[in-house]
Design brief:
It is a single chain. The chain is mostly helical. The chain has 12 helices and 2 strands. It has helices at residues 13-20, 33-46, 56-70, 83-111, 126-131, 152-165, 170-177, 202-206, 210-222, 227-237, 243-259, 295-318, and strands at residues 22-27, 49-54. Strands 1-2 form a two-stranded parallel ribbon. Helix 2 runs antiparallel to helix 7 and helix 6 packs antiparallel against helix 7. The termini are far apart.
């Protein structure tokens, strides 16, 4: 330390991180101990000032306000509720994480006897934004998102690389290989896997894989494909699938892409790392209001799928 002052140069990267980086695991009764453990071990490896927070009391308070106002109490679908109730219960957890993150950003310096405030970092990736698999104004809302323009596939490869490149960061590989999960629904112990620690997985919720989203994103943003041209391209790329399967995947993607496109208008600014970002404020200047039925395009896809199927059947008969 310098003579006559309490400040000094950090001796290790972890010591530096403890000054500037604050991380929080904001769990509820629906969160798994597996994910909590990974977050803590990652915080320890980085050296961040890490907190594990339970926000159930906040969730309960908000729901009590709703109950007092309406006389109704929503339930998860697994407990007899509708999909509308289920989504609302998931979204309130996600949005309260944003509130908690900003509260901590303002007050943790004070807690630690320092002045100033912190910037909030977001953690949503390109694929979540492209598909709209994110709650508007949830924990994806922040001051800056370092990974906001990177796809899930590229992020996974980056984590695996870093786990090999830097000793002591084995947890990165574990995180990369864990099934992605939002952990916003009650855990079903009968279907929860040891790797995920939870029964709710992103890909099952989305109805498509992150690998498929990687294809959709590059073709939509970089190649500027619409529904019909994307179907034709993927029919050749995914030639192991029947034309009707490719058609359904493309139509499902464009429905969710268009119905959730409005979320990109408020997305957190991100580090521009790749050409496939769907952020419409900076990188993708397409409209955000679409006819989500895509009537003409989907009809053309169905016609082409039937045509290709007939041609394949005739070819099989000839062989």
């Amino acid at each position: 330390k310098d003579e006559g002052t309490s400040f000094g140069a950090p001796a290790t990267p972890q010591e530096m991180a403890s000054y500037v980086l604050h991380t929080t695991f904001m769990g509820t009764e629906n969160s798994s101990s597996v994910t909590n453990s990974r977050a803590k071990r990652l915080g320890d490896a980085i050296g961040s000032y890490h907190l594990s927070i339970k926000i159930d009391v906040m969730v309960t308070a908000v729901l009590q306000v709703f109950h007092l106002t309406t006389g109704r109490m929503p339930r998860f679908s697994s407990r007899g509720g509708t999909i509308t109730e289920d989504l609302a219960l998931q979204n309130i957890q996600a949005r309260l994480r944003m509130v908690t993150a900003y509260l901590m950003a303002q007050l943790l310096p004070w807690v630690r006897g320092r002045s100033g405030f912190l910037l909030v970092l977001g953690s949503a990736n390109v694929d979540e934004g492209l598909r709209g698999y994110m709650t508007k104004y949830d924990c994806s809302s922040a001051d800056l998102n370092p990974i906001g323009s990177i796809s899930k596939g590229d992020l996974k490869r980056m984590l695996v690389f870093l786990s090999k490149e830097y000793p002591g960061f084995d947890v990165l590989s574990e995180i990369a290989n864990a099934p992605p999960t939002a952990e916003l629904r009650p855990i079903d112990q009968a279907t929860a896997t040891p790797e995920a620690g939870h029964s709710q997985t992103d890909e099952e919720d989305m109805g498509m894989s992150y690998e498929e989203l990687g294809y959709f994103g590059r073709l939509r943003k970089i190649s500027r494909y619409g529904p019909v041209s994307m179907f034709k391209k993927l029919l050749m790329t995914w030639n192991h699938l029947a034309p009707s399967e490719v058609a359904e995947k493309v139509k499902r993607f464009f429905y969710y892409y268009s119905v959730n496109r409005h979320k990109m208008t408020t997305i957190t600014p991100s580090y521009h790392a790749e050409a496939y970002s769907p952020d419409d404020n900076r990188f993708d200047l397409r409209q955000f209001l679409y006819n989500t039925k895509w009537t003409r395009q989907f009809a053309s896809i169905d016609k082409l799928a039937a045509q290709y199927t007939t041609e394949d059947d005739n070819k099989d008969k000839a062989d």
